[in-house]
Design goal:
It is a single chain. By secondary structure, the protein is mainly beta. A hairpin with a 2-residue loop joins β21 and β22.
Length: 321
């Protein structure tokens, strides 16, 4: 999925010293953003107060939207470098096509994992005949320097591991939890878990104390470590925790994201992750000139152009403001 802000800010972020040194309970404000033609999303990362959770660098939550009688999601071909995209659907269907030739229909609770690496272009669209509702999350993972120029790749996993415990059904989309390990390729220590809480659920889940974590409420309302969360809210938990307690009076859907604090400093602008402003500018020029990035086969239409680069040099910024 693309960052379609007309004037996307440039973020320089990363470094273990700026991660939480212990447990926290910080409610992160989201930002309403128009994505493509008619899809509104809540941008929860990067946001005021936090820019990374482990290697998770970008979190958009969208829906549930009634897309009956509309085209639904329409995100035209656009580029990525230096990151992985993790597409996670709760309702609806999205067609993914990319410059590798992948052409896949993604359905709820299937992992679509695209590794941009050196360079990739892709498009995401609701099929012509699609379900009435569209609901999901789009996540980016920053790649460490040693692998950020790796050859691009796409994985589609239709069956994922998980477990049931005290009123919660967990599906592990990235990393490992409670002995369940995702088949998705991860390039740094991280975890992503979909948590479906039944009415009356009250459960403690195991955490890695060396990881920092955040919890997104996708639907319903839940209590996380004593903090009530409504749909579209995200709570940063910090690090140093061995468990997290979750409670729900009614059914709720959560997404737990975590990982080791990301050591490296990166620059993220539009759909690119690099290590300097000069590198980002080079990616933008290569996209405009038709270099580096291949076309998306079979796509009939125009591709997205890169916004204008910021007029001022990038300001160093860390994980927090």
């Amino acid at each position: 999925m693309s960052n379609l802000e007309p004037r996307p800010p440039a973020h320089e972020l990363g470094g273990r010293a700026q991660a939480s040194a212990g447990p926290a309970l910080d409610l992160l404000p989201g930002k309403e953003v128009l994505l493509g033609e008619g899809t509104h999303v809540r941008r929860l990362l990067p946001t005021l107060g936090r820019r990374l959770v482990g290697a998770w660098a970008f979190v958009d939550h969208y829906g549930p939207d009634d897309v009956f009688g509309s085209e639904g999601m329409q995100v035209l071909p656009h580029p990525h470098t230096g990151l992985q995209t993790v597409s996670w659907l709760l309702d609806g269907e999205v067609r993914h096509r990319d410059s590798l030739g992948s052409d896949v229909l993604i359905r709820p609770r299937e992992l679509a994992l695209m590794t941009a690496g050196h360079a990739i272009a892709h498009a995401e669209q609701s099929p012509a005949v699609h379900p009435r509702h569209l609901h999901g999350a789009q996540l980016w993972v920053a790649l460490p320097d040693a692998v950020r120029d790796v050859a691009p790749d796409f994985e589609h996993h239709t069956a994922l591991p998980g477990f049931d415990s005290d009123g919660v059904r967990a599906t592990v989309l990235m990393g490992e939890m409670a002995g369940a390990t995702s088949p998705g390729t991860a390039h740094s220590p991280l975890v992503g878990v979909d948590l479906a809480l039944s009415a009356g659920a009250d459960v403690e889940l195991p955490l890695e104390p060396d990881f920092e974590y955040a919890v997104l409420t996708a639907s319903g309302s839940a209590d996380v470590e004593g903090v009530p969360l409504t749909p579209g809210a995200m709570l940063y938990l910090g690090s140093g925790r061995r468990t997290v307690r979750l409670r729900a009076d009614d059914a709720a859907q959560l997404l737990l994201l975590g990982g080791e604090p990301f050591e490296e400093r990166i620059v993220m602008w539009w759909n690119f992750v690099g290590r300097s402003g000069e590198e980002i500018a080079e990616y933008a020029a290569q996209w405009a000139e038709g270099d580096r990035f291949a076309d998306v086969p079979g796509f009939d239409g125009y591709r997205l152009g890169a916004p204008a680069l910021p007029p001022l040099p990038l300001k160093p910024r860390g994980r927090t403001r």
